Amino acid sequence: MREMLARDTMTEIEFNQAAGTTLAKIEQALEDADLDFETPADGIIEVEFDDGSKIIINRHGVAREIWVAARSGGFHFKPQDTGWVDTKSGEPLYDKLAALIAAQGGVMVRF
Question: What is the pTM of this model?
Answer without folding.
Answer: 0.90
